[in-house]
Design a protein that fits this description.
Blueprint (H helix, E strand, L loop, with lengths): L1 H32 L4 E3 L3 E8 L5 E8 L7 E6 L4 E4 L10 E8 L5 E11 L5 E11 L2 H11 L1
Parallel strand pairs: 2-8
Antiparallel strand pairs: 1-3, 3-6, 4-7, 5-6, 7-8
């Protein structure tokens, strides 16, 4: 009889704990569905072939398709040659905004860099990318040719 009572008590405790886990999961799912959602026009910007020291500024356009404002706390390039800027105000549901990026085009060669966005959106860390190929400018080519001769 005592063993039966123990089994019943353990069963009741187990049931109550698993019910709390279900409630916690439901709350987390509900919280996720109420979050802001990034919808980028493009998650990768291809600069293509550009000339050295040309304009390296571009922007990633996005819309908040979620149910809550998106607050971007930080944007960070993968190296010092990539500087990103974030909107200063929250992006309300249905609104669009931009994340600016400037690549240092004084460096010659192919590049592929990432920008990490930290926010309160459904994806708390979102990675977007830039890529391209910087060729020496005509002036640099002329300097190289003169130096060789």
């Amino acid at each position: 009889m005592i063993n039966l009572v123990r089994v019943l008590i353990v069963s009741l405790i187990t049931l109550s704990l698993s019910a709390q886990n279900v409630d916690t999961k439901a709350m987390a799912m509900n919280e996720f569905s109420n979050a802001g959602v990034f919808e980028f026009e493009n998650e990768t910007i291809d600069y293509g072939i550009i000339e050295q020291n040309s304009d390296g500024k571009r922007s990633f356009k996005f819309k908040n398709t979620g149910n809550s404002p998106i607050i971007i706390s930080k944007v960070k390039g993968s190296c010092g040659c990539t500087v990103a800027t974030k909107p200063s105000q929250p992006i309300m549901p249905g609104e669009s905004a931009e994340i600016g990026v400037a690549y240092a085009t004084n460096r010659v060669g192919k590049f592929s860099k990432s920008i990490t966005i930290t926010s309160n959106a459904s994806e708390s860390r979102k990675v977007i990318k830039i890529k391209g190929n910087v060729l020496p400018s005509k002036q640099e080519k002329a300097k190289t040719t003169v130096a060789k001769n």
